Amino acid sequence: MIDRLPPLALYVHVPWCVRKCPYCDFNSHGVGRGADLPEEEYLAALIDDLDADLSLAAGREIVSVFIGGGTPSLMAPAFYRRLLEALAARLPLASDIEITLEANPGTLERGRFAGYREAGINRLSLGVQSFQDDQLAALGRIHGGADAEAAIEEARDAGFDNLNIDLMHGLPGQTVELALSDLDRALTFSPEHLSWYQLTLEPNTEFHSRPPTLPEEEVLWDIQDIGHERLEAAGLGRYEISAYARPGRRARHNLNYWRFGDYLGIGAGAHGKLSTWTDNGLAIERRWKARQPEAYLRRRRDPRGFVAGRATVEPDELPLEFAMNALRLVDGVSLATWRAHTGYTPEVMASRLAQAREKGLLVEDPGRLQASPRGLLFLNELLALISEADT
């Protein structure tokens, strides 16, 4: 039984980027280089959006802030200084709050990182994806390998001591050697965190409609196996399907998602999850904001406000909702935590747990739901097995 509200985080979405990448299914809108973005209007809208959601927070402490996109580094440091000042004036912030900004190497002007650090950003996530120029071109990226290295060095010079590098593998035409070369180059910068994920062809993307030739499955297995060993040997422990971190440097904001925490979402297309107490116990609502940037900005003058939709998470949806997040974690969750969040006891799912263990998808631990290495690779199969009660 849940006896307290979960931690509360804040997600801020900046929807613009220089060019939409062919693999990207996020709410991002290419504007070209040198575009005159409506910074003042968007900042005002974000603050209005936050004000409209304050009653949902009810004075709860904000444990982390994540500014994603799109490409948030298109906005000037002063934009974030003013945004964070507005947040601090409205809600209590944890004394050790983690504030992450996503940045792309190809959108940076010299000296911006120092400005972001001074504005209050204390964690940087760099969308490197690869250090190979031809691979970056195949991905539609606007930066080269030298740009990525220069951005990392500038981040360090600016005082960022909590740095995530985003890398992709399984890229068009990529060999095991090329994938490991990317990892090795990233590790020379001793990042505190590394997100290392396989390219997938998502619906509603250019790559989905015109798929490139990706490596054979055996090559993908070799990349994952050897790469995992190399990251672990470098002191970056795997704690989620595609996330590796040094001790004490796991991404708090993402952990809050995976542990089924709450979060406010402000900005065009931002999603939020909020828990509240009702006479019937804990109620969970998901809500999302107007997706198109122009429509979102118009909502400032619309009596409907910024919310484009909302949905209550029904009790029978909780097992899958919870499992989709928690079982991404390498450590999984205790059965007591599973029961508290879903209402399912081990008894009502005994045969399903047995099936999952027989298939090698779960670790043999009677007190935990923990995906095995195979289970992490075939997570959808595991989710289908354990997210329903026995009938």
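(the above was protein one; protein two follows)
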Amino acid sequence: MKQTSFPLKTDTLRTPDGAFGGLKDYPFAANYMLVDGMRLHYIDAGQDHDKTIFLLHGQPSWSYLYRHMIPDLVDAGYRVIAPDLIGFGKSDKPMSSETHTYGNHVKWMRSFVQQLGIKHASAFMQDWGGMIGLRVLAQEPGWLDRLVLANTALAEMNSLEKFMVPKVLKFLAAKAGKPSLNTFSNHINYGNWASYFKHSTSLEVGKIIQTLTTRDLSEAEMQAYDAPFPSEKYYAGPRKMPQIVASELNQVNADWQKLKQWNKPILTLFSDKDPFLAGQGYDLKFQQNFSGAAEQPHTTIENASHFLQEDQSRQLASSVANWLQQTAF
């Protein structure tokens, strides 16, 4: 749906279209859908192809992250749908941080999936794209027949963990104070991440993305990551997400249990230089808890940081396409 005239919801902002003019390597037509009264943007490329793959981004990125993977996947014979989360990219941005709950992001993405009506698709999920997308899959098990997970997490927690983990994360963020971008770059950890996004008066998103890649981004590419957020008024989404990593744990546990019943093929492609997740065993949790992950060619993507789509886009697209073909998708 290419309609752009959706009305703007109260207490919601819309980044002017002019902010996205002339983006490097991003020639894709804009599509929009109304979700909970807000305009959600998505790329829909290769519409002539029968098989669909969804590409879900996280925080603080947007569908620009997939600009190099999309053409390769279309060339491999797939329809590619890459939405922008509400609060990010070209999608509308609620101004209140209270609106950006974990449950709301799941609700919004589930509405998008339901309205598209595409079943038996595949998906590549990274960062919050996985934390949100996996819960959508738990609630809409017919949505996907194949799943690729990269640098993301979702796991059940026992009663002690449910009590302790939120407190520990809150302590780490408070202990970090108000770190600068330079402080975060030199000491990449959860506390500095959460506190930078909470307190910084000017979020340098492009430079943040650069700190979490192994490839040198151009000025134009970093500016493209800054484009969705022309002023502090637009920051509510990226500010809030680090604070809700360990929230709604009862619902997360319930969705994790539902996911365990989903037995379609799963592939993990985690990177070797992710300062948050590399070597922490999150990929193993998916491999060990889901029957569809058994005997799959799980791979560690080398020389790639957290935003591995920037570092090894061609390898990722090739690995995904080859695996989908191998599993007769």
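Reviewer note on protein two: The chain is about 40% helix and 15% strand.
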